[in-house]
Amino acid sequence: MVSLTAIKGMNDILPLDMEAWIFFEQNAKLCLKQFGYNEIRTPILEHTEVFVRGIGQVTDIVEKEMYSFNDSLNGENLTLRPEGTASVVRSVIQNHLLYDGGKKLWYMGAMFRHERPQRGRYRQFHQLGIESLGFAHPQADTELVLFAHKLFEKLGIQDKLVLHINSLGNLPERLKHREALIKYFEENVNILDVDSIKRLKTNPLRVLDSKNPDMQSMIENAPSILDFLEQDSLSHFNTIKKLLDGLNIAYKVNHRLVRGLDYYNKTVFEWITEELGAQGTVCGGGRYDPLIEIMGGKSYPAVGLAMGIERILELIKMTSYAKQPKNDVYLIYNGEQTELYSLLLASKLRDFSINVIQHSHIELQQQSLKSQMKKAGASNSNFAIVITDQFILEKRISIKSLISGDEQVFDLENLNNNEQLKLICNYIQKTL
Ligand code: ATP
Ligand code: MG
User: Fold this and answer.
1) 115 lines ligand 1 (CB under 6 A)
2) I need a labelling partner for 70 at 20 to 30 A (CA). Which of 20, 62, 89, 396 fits?
3) Whose CA is nearest to atom 24 of ligand 1?
């Protein structure tokens, strides 16, 4: 019989990994709330046309990465979403969400791209994205950057990331730059690789994106889009830089930053880390003023970002967060009387918002206190509480710190003595 395994590049998220996911999700949701972004959930499956129109024909995603298929029941061509922006814009237009002014939306969930799986690159991966729709002012771009900056700070990964920013100007400016770029690349055609020669005609901007080490110094000296910006684009970009300076957010102007998608204009930005090898971009975004109209809506300005959660989790796992215990109390108990007592005590502690792990009595009955203490040590908890018949008789419990090894004994007349329970819980909570 063939063994059943998951699809290549699509991973299970196992219980051991879940702590880090929840840590990310909780911090992200808190931060999103603080900034006043509202959640939107769109279907995972859309008509293929949504992505072709919304992402652009000549992009890596549409050219080669989409999971598309014909619905065998009605022949419609459908695609698993490879990113969030196109779906959100489709929904915003369809549901007339902009009729009473701009909207700040966020989404979080799985995306699908048929790529070669490797570290930080999967076929099913997860993004947190924000779309700020209907806002033209550079403050909207800056607020997005500030959001990501704050979230990375909360997650403790800020010092591993460098913010790169650039402006792609507007279409006429880009066309002039494109001409200069094609001319420059044609003069250097002997240095271009096969991929870049192909892109030279279709999307020369993307040649700037190439990671080929042999092309780097040539690309570094290519004409910069920033030299082609006129008044409006220039002042938009300068305002963002001024606001970021005022907010004390460090950035690097990178004229090679172009982003993979067609629809960006003016601002683009990415957070890049050196610590994840080739897949170093953890978050990218930019302004996409033309998109809503391209997708059939009225013309509204918009700016957004998307972060790759798997890559961010890899960074989180390198911080001290990974070493912190994730549970408050592991309950150790042994003896006739402890069977009910331990269940009741655990329940009382939980009423005071303390997390308690308790293993089943029958399983533990056969284990010595010493081997239970070993289990406690491996349980990723801050404290072990030990209960024995003797302790119950003496009306006390023992609380052992699994970090320092310190042991404290507390009086506990009975389990209805809330004053004494409060003292115990205060001690635990204060030390967490
Ligand atoms: P890359 O250059 O790494 O292919 P991209 O430009 O295709 O990235 P975006 O479409 O901008 O990526 O998506 C935003 C973020 O989502 C990326 O910065 C990255 O963190 C994450 N991401 C994109 N593709 C994948 C993938 N296949 N697996 C895991 N994360 C991904
Ligand atoms: Mg990609």
Assistant:
1) yes
2) 89
3) 121
- Cα(59) to centroid(ligand 2), Å: 9
Query: Which ligand 1 atom is the nearest neighbour of the CA of 259?
Result: 6
Q: Which residue has the tokens 């040649």?
A: 207
For the domain spanning 326-431, the CATH number is: 3.40.50.800
Task: Locate CATH 3.40.50.800 in the chain.
Answer: 326-431
Alpha carbon distance 54, 80 (integer Å): 14
Please give the Cα distance from 191 to 378 (Å, whole number): 56
Tell me the C-alpha distance between 383 and 127, whole Å.
Answer: 35
Provide the pLDDT for residue 31. 98
- Rounded to two decimals, what is the model's pTM? 0.89
User: What is the CATH superfamily name and number for domain 15-170+230-320?
Assistant: Bira Bifunctional Protein; Domain 2 (3.30.930.10)
Question: How far is Cα 6 from Cα 124, in angstroms, rounded to an integer?
Answer: 11
Atom 21 of ligand 1, nearest CA residue: 308
Distance spanning both ends of the chain, measured CA to CA: 50
